[in-house]
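Entry under discussion copied across for reference:
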Amino acid sequence: MERFETCVSLDVGRLSSVGEVERWVRAVSSCRAVLEVRLAELAARADQLGAAPDGSASGGVGREVLRRGARVSGAQATAESGRARVVELLPEFGQAWEHGQIVGEHIDALARVLRDLPTAKVPEFAAEAAALVDTARRSSPERLAREARSLANRVCPSTAETEAARLQGERGMRFIRHRDGTLSAVVRFGNEGSEAKRIVEHEASRVLAAHERQAEPEPVTHEQANLDALMSLIRGEHSHRNGDRPVKTTFIVQVTFDDLRQAGGPLGAVTSDGLPVPCARVNELLGEAELLPVLLDDAGIGVELTIAGRRRLASFVQRAVLGSMYATCMFPGCGVPFDDCEIHHLVPFNGANTKLENMGPACGQHHHDTHDRGWKVTLDHARTVTVHAPDGTRWATEPFRPPDHVRRRSMHQQPAPPGVTHHPEAA
């Protein structure tokens, strides 16, 4: 109770440094986490009390109690009740959450994975949950979701196909009419989201180039170019330039050779943005795909097989190799998917250093931080990343950790690396 009173009586205006602010943010978040855990426990208890006489759950009791008692939306109440199941099945996550080591979004990520996992397989999943707790403590909810999904696929290979089918079932688009007469579209893709993104972005690059050639006084933003590209595709204007299809898309599926040799098909195939791919779909792709082998060493680090030229941008092959090494932005704790990242030169481009050893994925915000705000990123020979603040002090360090589908095969006999080390006071 004392820490709650301390947080409530905090005079924010008297804080004098960013480091001090961050310490108080952690303290307040810790208090919030305790309350969120209690809500999850209350929802679980309501489900227990609302169970049928034979012990079977009647369903939705905890959700309804939360909706009425906390005065939240039905969607929020459903999310809270999903957290209750995680806390009940994986108590170590409830403890880490209560102590402020993880946040509610980590629990939500696990709830989505457990939703598709058969009840009979939950104990096997829970037996390996200790490693996931360590992942959650040092990583973003997005990264935890990837590793939890990979673990679920190992425990129950059919989970990937179940999740893929669910994602396809949730796909759709709806239009929203605004008061000023304009329309907005809300689109939810299934497994074809990456393909749609690449098609639109390819067409958008042509739109931007056309506007630059015309030297228009008002530059077109990337968002406007994306809309122009989508309208071009809808009207079929691209067909006059590129034939029937707007662009030959690239569909990157990460699957090991051992998986392909399995009689039942690949067990852990995922797209480059982490979505599961059904075995049947992978087999379809293999019949017409142009295969690109990627060589990783025992630590999961990509081996440069091509001679880097004087090009500035990463080649397609280099980006594919980096995509096999990283699931997200390389900055410690950042969960932006690899497909949404840019390739960053750690040592600025000098005409001959566009090589894997000098490159890594950085999301738009972190790429901006390095180029315009003075932040610096360094990698050692093992690709341990260290982030330095503009004044030269060390901000955070994190060992290289390849995606789980790589690590479980190439690093299964190696000890787990330590977590992120933050040094916020130094900044």
The radius of gyration is 24 Å. The CA atoms of residues 125 and 152 lie 7 Å apart. Confidence is low (pLDDT under 50) at residues 407-417.
